[in-house]
Write a structure and sequence with these properties.
This protein is of the alpha+beta class. The protein is built from 25 helices and 17 strands.
Length: 547
């Protein structure tokens, strides 16, 4: 062993050659780490050669430095408070933190979303009311989360001072639940019936061993009732409880299959072949899960920029055809090799996703930008064309996102990006006038989103081109030009009507007012491209010359 700070491997994604690791209390992400190099690092760490591993890792490109390994959150402060409160009470040794909170703490990450199980029938209600009685107005009135479930929630309204110590609990929202076992009597829904259970039975009903660790909130002891949870977290393995049928776990609550996808994408953990086969056997069960719940899991993946991994895994396990059948339909749709040497529409979409912004809108736009290609493909001899696929795709994207229950603003933005994602390629040789029209048509926010999508599209195509950067530079120059873009014509509607001699009652000629307004906007862009600003007088003269 050497005296260098300890190196802890958090996760490794071979397909991305991405290694996440801690040095002391700081987290790093390095890229370009092949499986061979990862093996070398592992070998060094097994022999305690932390210093040697640190030097070895310096040869790779560090993409970012994340937050410190641990931090004090309001939830963590609640845990610290309970360690003081619980001893000597009826709940000593009966209240345990469970789930992702303990998983993340064990991994050295910031622990959030504290969930507590109480191994006593009615214990969660009594404990929350006990805390309310002890801390009065600092805690909200305990609220039952569903009439038929022994789950109670409290919110800490302020920090708490207790026995000479101050606990920064303000804002923490904590759920307490009785330990329980459950049954799913109806195969066509996820409705469950619950009954009191032991701590072991409560653990057995959970999804994966990595989420089955417990922490005794009286003593602080980490409890591994499965016997394998710690090892599975350390080795990055996703599987079910060793004494519970995984078919039952997935069939009872099919959303767990999507959670499997999310955890794999987030951490890069391994999924044993037996688990993959179990998902394949149960994939059709995902149809009983609401779109909101499925998207709730997948949007978390989108925020990480890892939707490409999730989509590939869903395809591999048979989930994709039920969750996103329109994306499944991209598989095998050929493209012209001259522009798409990477392969079919699905392979192209996966590559685009890997390069798209790590936002919900950015990932959705990348996922659906070519969704119209299967329906618009034309094959004439050796030629393959997708005429108007962006228009077809925009209509399909709108319908898909509506079905998946996305909000109206997200649907509007993604649909606009899909509809206009080809437009930057037509602007490579455009002058300032054309760029100004592009910005005015779409608005600044959508222009930036379209350019981001087009750049990802380039990176996902072989051969890779670099045309979008030229358009982005043109947009930057226009935005920074001394003559700013006009959002409306220099003459208003009434002024245009007066110049053209159009009466408000002359409905046949009213469309001419709109056409004149567009003409003045184009004329303003032409003036701006010369560094000049169109005046009212010049606009009036131009309209009169049109008569």
């Amino acid at each position: 062993m050497d005296s260098a700070p300890k190196v802890v491997i958090l996760s490794y994604i071979p397909s991305y050659e991405e290694l996440m690791y801690f040095i002391g209390d700081k987290k790093y992400v390095a890229t370009g780490v092949s499986p061979f190099h990862k093996g070398k690092v592992d070998q060094m760490l097994r022999h305690g050669a932390n210093g040697q591993a640190i030097q070895y890792l310096k040869k790779f490109r560090v993409e970012r430095t994340a937050m410190k390994k641990t931090g004090s959150t309001a939830e963590k402060e609640v845990e610290r408070l309970l360690r003081v409160v619980l001893p000597g009470t009826p709940w000593a040794g009966k209240a345990h933190a469970v789930g992702g909170y303990i998983r993340d703490e064990y991994m050295g990450l910031e622990a959030k979303d504290l969930d507590i199980v109480v191994s006593e029938s009615g214990g969660s209600e009594r404990l929350t009311k006990y805390l309310k009685g002890m801390f009065k107005g600092a805690i909200t009135q305990p609220r039952q989360m569903g009439a038929n479930y022994p789950i109670w929630q409290i919110t800490f309204r302020e920090d708490i001072t207790f026995e000479g110590d101050t606990f920064q609990t303000n804002g923490a929202v904590i759920e307490f639940a009785d330990t329980m076992k459950e049954q799913f009597p109806d195969d066509t829904s996820r409705q469950r019936s619950i009954m009191p259970g032991t701590l072991e039975e409560d653990i057995e009903r959970r999804d994966f061993t990595t989420n089955m660790l417990l922490k005794d909130l009286t003593t602080g002891e980490i409890v591994d009732m499965t016997g394998v949870s710690k090892n599975d977290i350390e080795n990055g393995v996703l599987r079910g409880h060793p004494r519970v049928s995984l078919d039952k776990i997935f069939s009872d609550d099919p959303l767990r299959m999507i959670r499997l996808v999310r955890f794999q994408a987030k951490y890069g953990w391994k999924i044993p072949l037996s688990v993959l086969n179990t998902v394949k056997r149960n994939a059709q069960r995902i149809q009983i899960v609401s779109a909101e719940r499925i998207m709730g899991e997948l949007t978390k993946v989108m925020k990480l920029g890892k939707l490409s991994q999730a989509v590939r895994l869903m395809k591999m396990t048979g989930l994709l055809k039920y969750v996103l059948p329109e994306v499944q339909n991209m598989v095998g749709v050929k493209q012209p090799k001259k522009f798409h040497g990477e392969g079919d529409v699905f392979k192209h979409t996966i590559l685009v996703l890997k390069n798209a912004p790590a936002t919900i809108e950015g990932q959705l736009a990348a996922l659906l930008h070519d969704v119209g290609k299967p329906a618009s493909q034309e094959v004439v001899g050796d030629a393959i064309r997708f005429l108007g696929h962006e228009d077809v795709g925009a209509e399909m994207a709108k319908a898909i996102l509506y079905r998946l229950k996305f909000d109206a603003e997200t649907i509007k933005k993604v649909t606009m990006v899909v509809k206009n994602h080809m437009r930057p390629y037509h602007l490579v040789k455009a002058d300032d006038k054309g760029i100004r029209k592009f910005i005015r048509d779409l608005g600044d926010e959508i222009v930036d989103a379209v350019l981001d999508q087009a750049a990802a599209d380039e990176m996902g195509s072989l051969p890779v081109s670099d045309e979008v950067s030229l358009v982005r530079e043109k947009v930057r120059r226009v935005r920074e030009a001394p003559v700013k873009m006009q959002s409306k014509p220099v003459l208003n509607g009434l002024e245009i009507m007066t110049i053209l001699g159009i009466s408000p009652n002359d409905r046949k000629r009213l469309p001419e007012v709109g056409e004149a307004g567009k003409y003045l906007m184009d004329l303003a862009d032409e003036y701006a491209s010369r560094g000049e600003e169109l005046s009212k007088g010049e606009a009036e003269k131009a309209l009169r010359d049109m008569k």
